[in-house]
Amino acid sequence: MIVKQLDDLLGTEAEVRGAAFESRRILLAADGLGYSLHDTVVKPGSVQELEYRNHVESNYCIAGSGTVENVATGEVFDLRPGTLYTLDRHERHIIRAGDEGLRFVCIFTPALTGREVHDENGSYGLPD
Ligand SMILES: CC(=O)NCC[C@H](N)C(=O)O
């Protein structure tokens, strides 16, 4: 059994900061599960255009408000606590956070190692 506590990860390498988000990586590739699980906090008013070409990402909103847009179709979906979106077709998407920001429980498959950074496409690379 693996048991972890978010407080214990804060201030360690498992806490990753991007321009618009903080991602607390609770489970990573090193845990050997095939997926990684993150507690992701998105900054109020931020806009992120992303496209995970190498991963499938699921985001389950647990706080805040905003929208996610499917760039190819123009569809815009409201995000609020209880909303899940999964980028099962690696869709290019735009996340717009409202005034309170957003907080997600986030799962990536395959698992992130924790060293990835967004490239020019908004994608994370695969490990070497
Ligand atoms: C929704 C969002 O902010 N995605 C970017 C960060 C990603 N969820 C991560 O945890 O690395």
TrEMBL record:
GO annotation (BP), single: ectoine biosynthetic process
The superkingdom listed in its UniProt entry is Bacteria
Give yes or no: UniProt keyword Transmembrane: no
Matches recorded under InterPro entries:
Ectoine_synth, RmlC-like_jellyroll, RmlC_Cupin_sf
Q: What is this enzyme's EC?
A: 4.2.1.108
* Known pathway: Amine and polyamine biosynthesis; ectoine biosynthesis; L-ectoine from L-aspartate 4-semialdehyde: step 3/3
The protein's matches in Pfam families, at most eight in alphabetical order, are given as: Ectoine_synth (PF06339)
Alphabetical UniProt keywords: Lyase
Enzyme class, UniProt record, top EC level: lyase
Kindly indicate whether the keyword Nucleus belongs to this entry. Answer: no
Q: Which reaction does it catalyse?
A: (2S)-4-acetamido-2-aminobutanoate = L-ectoine + H2O
The GO molecular function terms of this record are: ectoine synthase activity
Q: What does this protein do?
A: Catalyzes the circularization of gamma-N-acetyl-alpha,gamma-diaminobutyric acid (ADABA) to ectoine (1,4,5,6-tetrahydro-2-methyl-4-pyrimidine carboxylic acid), which is an excellent osmoprotectant.
Q: Which NCBIfam families match?
A: PRK13290.1 (NF009806)
What protein family does this chain belong to? Belongs to the ectoine synthase family.
HAMAP family, per the entry: Ectoine_synth
Q: What is this protein called?
A: L-ectoine synthase
Source species of the chain:
Marimonas arenosa
